[in-house]
Amino acid sequence: MTTHKFIAGDVFPTIQLPTLDNNLINLSEPQNGADWKLVVVYRGKHCPLCTRYLNELETLKSRFLALGVDIVAVSADSEAQLTSHMAQLSVSFPIAYGLTIEQMQMLGLYISEPRSEQETDHIFAEPGLFVINEKGQVQVIDISNGPFVRPDLNVLLSGLEFIRNPENNYPIRGMYN
């Protein structure tokens, strides 16, 4: 299997996926008056760590938005799986569903097969997090091959506060090839 490494500073691709309110959402397009976007890729309904992470993200949503960073979450789950999952989630940010294998590969995500039918019924992406700046470039990338390795959301928020402060003139890191 060929893996694509998503490069810091690259323009985030246009990926439009449905949400439960029957709208298509462009993952990279900020909403709510924000000019940056946080895209959180989660494994799906079957992952209790993902549920906890998304619920924790909701508690920080207003702080991210005050910083000009809008939030969207996405998984490869079906509409029915996301609908069922919403009973466990207390989130007000949009969640898109139906991320395809091709889109996962485009983003350089690790991809897993379910361990059994009890886990889930489809191939899914392991956790990924992308922060997209006002130019559409990926400012921050975090990709994991397991559900227990994700950025601490408070540390991420603190880092974005530093990056977004114009006095710091902080560039996109990791661009040396």
From TrEMBL:
<dbReference type="InterPro" id="IPR036249">
    <property type="entry name" value="Thioredoxin-like_sf"/>
</dbReference>
<keyword id="KW-0575">Peroxidase</keyword>
<dbReference type="GO" id="GO:0004601">
    <property type="term" value="F:peroxidase activity"/>
</dbReference>
<keyword id="KW-0560">Oxidoreductase</keyword>
<feature type="domain" description="Thioredoxin">
    <location>
        <begin position="6"/>
        <end position="165"/>
    </location>
</feature>
<protein>
    <submittedName>
        <fullName>Thioredoxin peroxidase</fullName>
    </submittedName>
</protein>
<dbReference type="InterPro" id="IPR013740">
    <property type="entry name" value="Redoxin"/>
</dbReference>
<dbReference type="Pfam" id="PF08534">
    <property type="entry name" value="Redoxin"/>
</dbReference>
<dbReference type="InterPro" id="IPR013766">
    <property type="entry name" value="Thioredoxin_domain"/>
</dbReference>
